[in-house]
Amino acid sequence: MPMPDGRHRLGRSAKAFATDPARPLRQRRYRTPLRDERLAAWLGAALGVLFTTCFLTGLFSHAHQHPVSWFPVPARPAGLYRVTQGVHVAAGIAALPVLLAKLWLVWPRLLSVPPFRRLSDVVERVGLLALVGGGIFQVWTGVANIAQWYPWRFSFTASHYEVAWITMGGIVAHVGAKWAVSRRALRRPSRRPRLAEADPVLGASAEEPHPGLSRRGFLATVAGAAGTLTAVTIGQTVRPLAALGVLAPRDPRQRPVNRSAANAGVTAAATSPAYRLEVTGRVARPLTLTLSDLQALPATEAVLPIACVEGWSYSARWRGVTVAELLRRAGAPPGATVRVESLEADSPYRASFLDHAQAADRATLLATHLDGEALSADHGYPVRLVGPGRAGVNQTKWVTKVVVL
Amino acid sequence: MPETPNHHRGPGFWLATAAGWALIAWGVRGALLHRIDTRPPQLLRFFVTGLALHDAVFAPAVLLAGVVLGRTVPARWRATVQAALLVAGTAALFSYPLVRGYAHILHNPTSLPRNYTAGLAIVVAAVALAAVIGRLLLRALRVGRFVR
After folding, report:
1. Do A233 and A287 lie in a common domain?
2. Is B41 on the interface with A (CB under 8 A)?
3. CB-based contact (8 Å) between A143 and chain B?
């Protein structure tokens, strides 16, 4: 039977649904003194600092792996990349508890009824998809990558880079949305609104005594979680703390490698008596050297770090011929740039580049010895490129060709 | 009482939104441009799965754990247990791929060289000890600001 006031009944039902205090999944059921704007602002600020640090150090790492002419990567200080990438991974790990705490705090906002009242609410909520989704994606893929766990088929480096822009965009939009609220919430106590006025739905009970963590205790615990994770992982790049690193994916005291000779498929070619090191390209006198020829040339020693994108690093003493010396002997033009090629055939990192400053650096070596001993196969036997301030993927192993461009 | 906050949104909001969405568009553009590497359908599925797993599974599980805690742990020790579970739980989540040893398939002995199950156990034990000692110390010093 048709209802003459059908629309009114629908409207009344909707309003009753929205205001019924006994409705399950109502925001008020998640009231806790910990859900207040001041905590949300502090956690948000901490996340902003951590993610921005990750973003900037990540851009620097990207420049190492995808060189651009307008930003030549500095070779000095020699340990620069080691520091920036160590900071990148440490900040990402520390972000895990802070991110989860912030999401726990704001999760009941998912249940807002009505979900939006103005166009700006819709815009903000869509922006939150990028922020929250991006933050979770970055921390998850980052943590999985340093454990060398790849439950996906896309390229980690490419995807992690592009989603970083998406996440930063979400952060910028969110800062704009919450600027006024955060400023007010972070003011000194005398100028702060009373909690009951600030968030009547979620935080009104904050001023009553309650069992469990106080707001200060909650922040201290989140900081403690971030500090604990940092303490048990930072040893993979800070050598004096290596013994503390019970959850560090690498131990720098072992001089780790990322790709073994077997996995690179180079064992036969590297150990073959037919191995040669060629210096070709724009040179007056192309060179073809056996390993003995190379070791007969004047050698240089340098203490240089190997620093991986995964945030681990170690320092070692390398001995070999400088690239500059080889280029001089081959009659390369001054200011030349160089491509260094590996025996490894099937890898995006089978070649790396030296700009003219890096090629001329007195510590850029084609090394044959590591800490006084001949290179092992996994460390790049017979010849490895090692230079100051280079990302690990650019310290090419199993070098077979130096091409002057 | 309206559940959606009614914050003022002036020109600053719209400027930040525009700048933020420009950065988001730049990332999406890059993902599509390098789709051979980023595999956009897979990437999108992973992106959405992370969001959904947190909002629909992880967060409710944590809330449920909080309810159980509230009903089983005496009020005097609730803050200590909360703090210990938060720190130890984060360590457990972080160390999941290490404990599972997924990287061992690469046969690289310098990758995951430690016993991570033992490592996690050490961290959990240390956290529990620190939490108990911390609580006793705070009570002895009668500091009421961290716990109630």
Report:
1. no
2. no
3. yes
Which helix (H) or strand (E) covers residue A281, if one does? strand A277-281
Query: Which residue(s) pair with A365 in the sheet?
Result: A322, A386
Flag whether A59 is in a domain: yes
Domain assignment present for A253: no
Q: Chain B contacts of A255, Cβ < 8 Å?
A: 110
- Residues A324-357: tens digit of each pLDDT: 999 999 999 999 999 999 999 988 899 999 999 9
Query: A338 and A202, same structural domain?
Result: no
pLDDT of residue A116: 84
| Closest among A149, A110, A152, A153 to A132, alpha carbons compared | A110
Q: Which of A186, A218, A244 is the last residue of a domain?
A: A244
Q: Is the CB of residue A318 less than 8 Å from the CB of residue A276?
A: no
With an 8 Å Cβ cutoff, are B94 and A103 in contact? no
Residues of B in contact with A258 (CB under 8 A): 108, 111
- DSSP assignment of B5-20 equals ------HHHHHHHHHH
Query: Are A307 and A202 in the same domain?
Result: no
Q: What is the pTM of this model?
A: 0.91
Judged by a CB distance cut-off of 8 A, whether residue B15 touches chain A is: yes
Q: Cβ of B90 and A100 within 8 Å?
A: yes
**What residue numbers bound the domain in which A371 lies?**
261-404
**Contact (CB<8Å) A110/B113:** no
| Residue (of A366, A399, A398, A393) closest to A308 by Cα position | A393
Q: Are A33 and A208 in contact (CB under 8 A)?
A: yes
A382, A275 contact by CB (below 8 A): yes
**Sequence-ordered list of residues with C-beta below 8 angstroms from that of A157, at least 6 positions apart, any chain:** A65, A309, B37
ipTM value, please give it: 0.94
In this structure, the answer to whether residues A216 and A270 fall within a common structural domain is no
Classify residue A18: in a domain, yes or no. no
Average pLDDT over residues B67-95: 95
User: Would you give the distance in Å from CA B77 to the centre of its chain?
Assistant: 23
Q: Is the CB of A169 less than 8 angstroms away from the CB of B24?
A: yes
d(CA B80, CA A211): 11
Does A91 map to a domain? yes
A71 lies in the same domain as A196: yes
Rounded average pLDDT over B108-133: 96
- Selected residue of B32, B62, B85, B86 to mutate for chain A interface (largest A Cβ count, 10 A): B86
Q: How many domains does chain A have?
A: 2
User: Rounded to whole angstroms, how far apart are CA atoms A265 and B87?
Assistant: 43
The pLDDT tens digits of the residues spanning B33-62 come to 999 999 999 999 999 999 999 999 999 999
Q: Looking at the structure, tell me whether residues A190 and A333 fall in a common domain.
A: no
Same domain assignment for residues A278 and A215: no
Tell me: do A335 and A266 sit in the same domain.
Answer: yes
